[in-house]
Amino acid sequence: MGSALSCRVATLLLGQDKRQRVRATQVLLTLLLDAVLAAIAGVGVWLGMLEGRLAWLWVVFSLGGVLIFYALVRSGLNQRWFESDPALTLPQGVFSVFSTVGAYLMCGPVRGASMLALAVTLSFGMFALKLRQVVGLSLFAVLLLGFAMAGAHRLWPQRYPAEEEVMHFLLMAVLLPSIAVLAGQLSTLRHKLRMHRVELEQALEQNRQLAIRDELTGLHNRRHVLELMQLEAQRAERSGRPLCLALIDIDHFKRVNDQHGHAQGDEVLRAFAACASVALRDTDTLGRWGGEEFIVMLPETPADAAMGVLSRVHRQTAELRFEAFDATLRVSFSAGIAVVQPGETLAAAIERADQAMYAAKQAGRDRSVLAKPPSPPRVAPMRQAVPSSAP
């Protein structure tokens, strides 16, 4: 009960999108930090160190601004209005600079401590901003803080003496760009690491595809299509739904290689693979079995429907043309279709499809033949007991 309630509350506050949940969490953590700082400002007012009106103005500005960022993230407007920075890192950094400068003016005798927030702001920026953005943010913070110090000294010279403001400004003018450069370098390093990770993931995916795909046709290779058929056969065994397999052999393919060369033969194989893939259904799986042979898996398909699917492949294949090397060349294929029987091994079903394919070739090629169901196992007759002649 408690776990379900916490999940509902988390969904209500953070939403369901994974990335948006991370962004909303970050904004809420900032809101929590500002709430703690607001409580500290309240203590300062109670102790008489801070002026109440300025403190409450700063609290309303800081908490209100963070709530606006939360509303942008929670509503999804951040993804529409800030496509290049949906985490709102740079806008939140600029807002944090204004909030920190406001805190500096509010804190009076303890204003030096507020400048630590600028360093925190730049540190957060190193995880998302680019080097030029972090440097630009630090220069903006130095300039805004300098203008605020000059204005505060001019309005309240006793409270903000020139000597202290100059020292504060010089410290910030040196520390903030230094932190920005360090943050920028870390951001650049993080970006390079992310790019390396993307390249590694792409290389791993390419290796995975090479392991499961036929290099010539791009279809599933024999090993992988066998794995897929084994899984589908188990699923069909559990559900009781029909599963058909079809072995396909390109007719007179050796003649194509002999007359036109192996490069043109490869082009025929590629063209047939592309043509058959289009003619088959989305649920069907086409793989290269070897040489000019292909195999098709047709899940949840009875025999008559499988024959209809292969007929469509026959028609599509008949329309193939090879203008580049022989405009008169026509491609056809012979196929054997087997319905996997309950309890039958995959190897046995493939063997029946192979026999049906050869039957299609013997019958004249360019056709599909349905394999005969497997013969029931022979049961040896029981021998009748012979009565013993012993006394």
Structure overview:
With 391 residues, the protein is an alpha+beta fold. It is built from 14 helices and 5 strands. The protein is elongated and about 110 Å long.
The secondary-structure element order is: HHHHHHHHHHEHHEEHEHE
**Range of helix content:** 55-70%
- The number of distinct β-strands equals 5
Distance between the termini: 83 Å
Q: What order do the strands of the largest sheet run in, or round the barrel if closed?
A: 2-3-1-4-5
- The rounded Rg comes to 38 Å
Overall mean pLDDT: 85
How much strand content do the residues show? 5-15%
The helix tally amounts to 14
- Give the biggest sheet: 5 strands, mixed
Q: Structural class of the helices, strands and pairings? A: alpha+beta
Shape: elongated
Set out the fold topology.
Elements: H1 2-14, H2 18-47, H3 52-75, H4 77-81, H5 89-107, H6 111-114, H7 116-125, H8 131-155, H9 162-212, H10 222-239, E1 243-250, H11 253-260, H12 262-279, E2 285-290, E3 293-299, H13 303-318, E4 333-339, H14 346-362, E5 368-370
Parallel strand pairs: 4-5
Antiparallel strand pairs: 1-3, 1-4, 2-3
Helix pairs in contact: 2-3, 3-5, 5-7, 5-8, 7-9, 8-9, 11-12, 12-13
